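User: quick one
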Amino acid sequence: MLALVGLYFVVPLLATGIFSFWEGGDRYGLRAYISLVHQRDLWDSLWMSLHLALETIAVTLVILLPAVFWMHLKAKSFKPLFDFLSVMPFVVPPIALVAGLTALYTGPSWFVGTSNFLVVPYVILALPYTYRALDVGMRALDLKTLTEASQSLGAGWGTLILRVLVPNLTSALAGAALLTIAIVMGEFTFANVLLFNTFAVYINYVGQTSATEAAALTLLSFLITWLAMLGVLLTGRGQVQLGGAR
Amino acid sequence: MSYLSIENVAKQYDGRTVLNDISLELPPGEFLSLLGPSGCGKTTLLRILAGFEHADKGRVLLGDRDISGLSANQRNMGMVFQAYSLFPNMTAADNVRFGLRVRKVDAAEQRRRVDEMLDLVGLAEHADKYPHQLSGGQQQRVALARALAIQPTLLLLDEPLSALDAKVRVQLRDEIRRIQGETGITTVFVTHDQEEALSISDRVAVMYGGDLVQIGEPAEIYQEPAHSFVAQFIGVSSVLSGQVVDADEGVIAINDMKLHAERARGFGNNENVKVFLRPEHVRLGALNGSGLPPDTLPGTVCERVFLGATTRLTIGLDAGEQVLADVPTSDASELGIGCRVHAGWDFDHARVLADR
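Assistant: Done. Structure below.
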């Protein structure tokens, strides 16, 4: 059964991989990949998506880390509300979100007129994953005791967050960051509707013009996502051992 | 002059009184235990001292300085918590160093003080270990070293031994007392364990229902309970209900039997009282057909518990109440279950308190 499920996933990937090397007739080679490497637009779109992913991570962590920390420490009764809000991106279709966002948000041109605007929906899109990663990480810590211990030693909130909280949440933070990268690299709807040429939009464009290059790009996109997931797994293994005694 | 003064401190949560007008003073270098059952307000009082909670009323003074409005990180008080509170990402040495780094103490002085503190708690060789590599007792010792490293104005210990097993608890208890004696730091220790409080403290403050019901030296708390809760909570006591029939002579009546009790002097005639008897102060004798000796109550042995050198007998009094009596095990053999006995007590040791 497991092998059958494995085949279900592997066969299409394998077929895509083989197809990406097809050069017509019975010839196979790296032409699609070489062509891609020489496309400046690909690198621009890849850079834009990576750039957006990093911005999304930064904004997410700056907003979400203190918020989830505060919820766990001072407002546990708000947890059901946080849980509910965090799954909203699953409930609201992206197309409705993007329509709402464009109607609702105005602002300076350096923000609304540039790809930076995509950070807003991307933070929302990543919320179910980033919130849950941080929530699980913080639940594993005795936040109240650690907070009070550091305060009794003279630490303010900044020291507490940077020297105590963040180092003990490395796995959760890395997980949240890598999941955000995976989501942003693959996001199509927002970017396409708002006319930004991100990596996913470029894959779609290439798919309409060159099928083998699209297959090669799809594999590249999978590779990026898998690397992010591998990163999540590896950082999970390196988690600081919390609580308990020998 | 007092080192620490707590003046009329009161605290409510959702309309429920947790602390009711608490006042007490500590001289410098004193080891005070706040003792009481769960929910009596002892931890809340400690948290108010630490700055984690703020009193609704009253104030806390350190010397003549009112610190009530200061936040926890401005008070310079060392605290050891009930839960393991070491920072998991730091070694034992880094944990001890944390407060010094926050204070921007220079590196050489940091090293010196970290070494000194780890040496003081006997963990110098474990400096590079992470919390999960240390036992519970070792973690609490590092927490103690960390609290002391900042040279705090006050050391606050919030049931630091309760998560440890019995043997380690006794070892660490003695160690805390030794370290407190060596450093001379004024200490407030919260516990619900009376043995812990009595064995370690200069004074014990017993709390009950948000009130400070008695404060005194351990022996005084044990021997001279001033409140019926203290009499029952500290040690083991039997309680008999009675009425003062002759206050001048110190005579009380328990179920129509008149008995002498020195402590009944000073009460009003016909006042209802409770008589508290420690098992070690109850004297038993077999009723062998002879008459009942004066100032004793008749009863029957209902239960025997072997305690080693002594055996604890539960006597069901004919008057309807029960009295515990510790007798030497060598004498207990003739007082089997069902044996008729008479129970009396040393007049001086029966503690008589108003029945409120």
